[in-house]
Write a structure and sequence with these properties.
Blueprint (H helix, E strand, L loop, with lengths): L14 H9 L5 E6 L2 H15 L6 E2 L6 H4 L3 H14 L4 E6 L1 H5 L4 H8 L5 E4 L8 H16 L7 E8 L6 H12 L4 E4 L25 H5 L4 E7 L4 H8 L6 E5 L5 H15 L6 H21 L3 E5 L2 H12 L4 E7 L13 E4 L14 E4 L1 H9 L3 E4 L17 H24 L1
Length: 426
């Protein structure tokens, strides 16, 4: 744990940003940030630059006056009145910031007062604790608790996927497609593959452009199985499974690398009482086995620093260590139980400043846009992953998961390492 009294070069993102990302995966939703206008503006610009797409968000625009005299009822009510005067959202996703949490606004009470006028899901996401993953996960839990209708009926052809915050829209889509190969109609909560996947819409809307519908969310309790990917959303799967005693829960901390994906397909095969998966799955497994052999010459002995959100950190670590890479330091912005599974020499909870001492003797850094500057200054190879990634377009269409995505990641890391060594040799 970093013992500094301040963040010098932060990696951490706030809980409200995680909540915003979650609500962006629900169709015709208006994410409503209860806080100052600048908080919403920053988040909007952040995700707009990362995804190269318009981001729907509104704010209650709390100022110095309303912060003192208003308990949240007036500013939230006025914001929803202004929103619904122009558009008719299927859902308003109301989430808090540090300021409104500190002053103790009763957003649950406000939601109940306004529920006859507008369907609202509320979630507490103070930015003085947690981070992107916890804000995302808390929002998924709130959606399940407040929208999903309990059921005792099971649809054997229906499955629900709950992805973690760092899964890209394409990764969500690919995992849905793999689950569908086992005869399921798959719903993702939230579903960024239908909203932030980079498709060209008819026009820029003021509401989210796609995602899972509110009606579909309400009926998720009839799913025969819920599949959670990432330690941060494990509790979300347990909450959904509690809505129907007949529902099964398949949890995976990661879908990176050979071992984790074997467990994924094994779980689905057992649920369906099948002996083997489709030929395409078998073929991609063989390709990943070959990729591990091909990239071992570049990655065997390579020394890497990872700086990512916990769930993505574990996924990347397990993929590249299977090919022989050594994780010198794994930097996470927040604590998480999955970090105990990361095979590394040093596990650091802190900021970029805390890994500077591990740079000598390191070959590569895998982290976000801000890791790029550190790598260039210290002449290290770099691969950009996580939030934000401002310089590279097409972030939403990257995939490092399943057999196919693990192959792509291994090849990218190996080619980058070979290029780095060749440049050093000259």
């Amino acid at each position: 744990m970093s013992r500094k009294p301040m963040q010098i070069n932060p990696l951490k993102l706030s809980q409200p940003m995680g909540a915003l990302l979650c609500f962006l995966g629900i169709k015709d939703t208006m994410p409503l940030m209860h806080g100052a206008q600048g908080c919403a503006s920053f988040s909007k610009v952040f995700f707009t630059r990362h995804f190269s797409d318009p981001i729907a968000i509104q704010t209650t625009a709390v100022n110095d006056i309303t912060a003192v005299i208003d308990g949240g009822e007036y500013s939230i009510g006025e914001a929803i009145k202004n929103i619904t005067a122009k558009v008719k959202p299927s859902l308003v996703g109301l989430f808090t910031t540090g300021m409104t949490e500190t002053k103790g606004d009763d957003i649950k009470g406000v939601t109940y007062l306004l529920r006859d006028e507008q369907r609202i899901v509320y979630v507490h996401t103070p930015d003085f604790e947690g981070g992107l993953e916890s804000g995302f996960a808390r929002s998924v839990e709130a959606i399940i608790e407040q929208l999903v209708v309990p059921s005792e009926e099971i649809d054997l052809a229906k499955a629900t996927l709950i992805p973690h915050a760092s899964m890209t829209p394409l990764e969500v889509e690919r995992v849905k497609e793999e689950i569908a190969k086992f005869g399921f109609e798959v719903y993702a909560l939230p579903d960024l593959s239908l909203s932030l996947d980079g498709h060209l819409g008819l026009k820029q809307g003021t509401l989210t452009s796609g995602g899972i519908s509110v009606d579909d969310i309400a009926g998720l309790a009839s799913s025969s199985i819920v599949i959670t990917v990432g330690g941060s959303v494990k509790r979300s799967g347990e909450l959904l499974a509690s809505k129907n005693p007949a529902m099964q829960h398949l949890h995976l901390d990661s879908l990176g690398g050979l071992v984790n994906n074997d467990a994924f397909y094994k779980g689905l095969l057992q649920f369906r009482s099948l002996d083997k998966p489709t030929p395409s799955v078998v073929r991609w497994r063989k390709r990943l086995q070959d990729a591990l052999l091909d990239t071992h010459f570049a990655l065997g002995g390579a020394r890497v620093i990872l700086a990512l959100e916990p769930d993505e950190l574990l996924s990347v670590a397990e993929t590249i260590t299977e090919a022989g890479a050594t994780i010198v330091a794994a930097l996470s912005p927040t604590k998480s139980p999955v970090l105990e599974k990361v095979r590394c020499e040093h596990l650091v909870i802190g900021d970029f400043d805390d890994i500077m001492g591990y740079l000598p003797g390191t070959d590569m850094i895998i982290g976000n846009f801000h890791a790029q500057r550190i790598a260039h200054e210290h002449h290290k190879a770099v691969i950009v992953r996580g939030f934000p990634n401002y310089e590279i377009v097409g972030n939403q269409l990257k995939s490092d998961l399943l057999y196919e995505g693990s192959c792509a990641l291994l090849f990218e890391v190996a080619n980058t390492m070979n290029h780095y060594r060749e440049m050093n040799a000259h």
